Amino acid sequence: MEDERSLEKIMLMAKIVSFFLLLMHCYWHCYLMFDRFGLTFEFINRFLLNLQNSTGLFNSPFLTKTICLGFLSIGLLGTRGKKDCKITINQILTRLSIGLGLFFGAGFLLPLLALFNAVALDIIYLILIIAGFLLILQGGTWLSRLLKTNLKDDVFNTENESFMQETRTLHNPAEDIPTVHLPTKFYYKGQWHEGMINVVNPHRATIVLGTPGSGKSFAIIDEYIKQLIEQGNCMYVYDYKFPALSMIAYNHYRLFPHGYKNSGNGIQPKVYFINFDDPRRSHRCNPLNPSFLKDITDANESAHIILMNLNRSWIKKQGDFFVESPKILLAAIIWYLKIYQDGKYCTLPHAIELLNKKYEELFIILSTYPELENYMAPFKEALEGGAMEQLQGQIASAKIPMARIISKELYWVLSGDDFTLDINNPDEPKIFCLGNNPKRETIYGVANGLFNFRIVQIINEKGKQPCGVIVDELPTMYFDKIDRLIGTARSNKIAVCLGFQDYSQLEKDYGREDMNVIVNTTGNVFAGQVLGDSAEKLSKRFGKILQERQSVSINKQDTSTSISTQMDSLIPSGKIANLRQGTFVGSVAEDFGVEMTQNIFHAKILVDIKKRKEQEKQYQKIPIIKNFTNPKTGKDEMKKIIEANYYQIKNDVTQIVADELQRIADDPKLAHLLPKQDE
To answer: How far apart are CA 9 and CA 12, in angstroms?
Structure first.
């Protein structure tokens, strides 16, 4: 307390000295004016002359003013004014700059004072120098009243929530692990910095979420496809809005095929497409190829995938009677087609047609095979017990949804075998693009889900070539056992990238448990603008940071300011909910041998639009795979050929039923199963 009082006395003395020097300066340089008005005093004259002779203080007006201003500055350092949030730094700087200009600029009148004995010039000089001094005094006093941090300067708390991010370009030293680089721009400590998001191990799975238009496909998923292809990875792309992603995958491989020279066996991959809308630009592939069905459990899983994609509400009702019954019936049909004539007719179109045959005949045929006896027992008992309504309900649960996907184009694509689904086979690497259409999502979703399930089942093995699995708009297709793929992808060199809009969309189509597994097992997260619960969960994932808080209390007598620190969200949910297009938050996983200074990011991802447009100028359309033109007539016979295939499948199934019923009738041990003919 005594030290504070002593300091206050020193500051007061400095101000008094400053005022005294100002008065002496004015008296010395405007002496003639003071003398004319009779305001000169002999003792003051002698004092100033002695001071001048001993110190030379008044040799230069600038010297006197500088010393005066120096003492004033010392006096202002200890000023304790009442804090005022209305005072701004601009107001203070304005007064200080004007005051200094007047205080030192008035010196241009001194030569005139020496030449002209004009009282008016003396008065003007005094007014200017005193006004300048008072403005400097006011500005200095206001400095003590200024709040150290103006609360209105950072209303969104941007400074507290900004943080240093990774600026280096990092690579994974492992040759078989690709690295995805995304250049960024981020804000930290009042300025913008150039950064880099380094996904040093995409094999630890990636999720990309954001509302429509947030830029998740343009800024991230497109780059994933390009950079994985450039580094020699095989590729499976689920293209919900075909051919958006397929065009990128096809053309980027066409422009940058060199990445495959040092990968796998150095064999260049082939590009395949499944496109139900345009059979000309589609290969044919049978996801129920009998070679995929090792035992009846594979048939059961295939039936599960088909029905879950047909009716998403069944995902949450697994185990219910009317969910399990059609699944068992469809599994039995698939396995029957597998074992009938060595799987010659084992395709999804044949399974659909067989399911739509008379159930009395279907049950008899299936029940004659020992492998299907247990599967068909509940249906057979219901038939024999006269429970017709229950039986019809069971069959209708499978028939009605399956009828929705009957399409001639779909039958054509799924009844051929132009390629195999082992896309990461080192001896036959592939880039496979699976197309969908938002307008026909229900029809194509079943086949796409089956393709997806079969591909993941085949590629998720050791000893294969590194592979990328890109699934945009994940909820539009039921991705069975996705948690197992994410859990084992790293050891099997599979880079999984899943895109969707937000967690609620995923929960709606997959259920809360599956959603939590997907979200909690992925190592790399990118999030654009998301709202509600999704933003809250992401904010918690990014953790908290020590932030500075300031509170100000102002009353008539005093202003008190207190500064404290507390742990608060690094990226609050409100900020995530208002991210601009192209701006993302997230975190990337580290890998052995690669250390990051910061793996969390909040930045705008920079896309070289000029470079992208130059590449797109070289893009070509998806090539025509099948030419339906008759070489003799030159006419397009696509419709005729596809319809012929459609009716051939129907005829195949009709013939199968007829042959099987004849076989049963000719077998004395089985003939009793057939209903007796009315005489």
So the answer is: 5
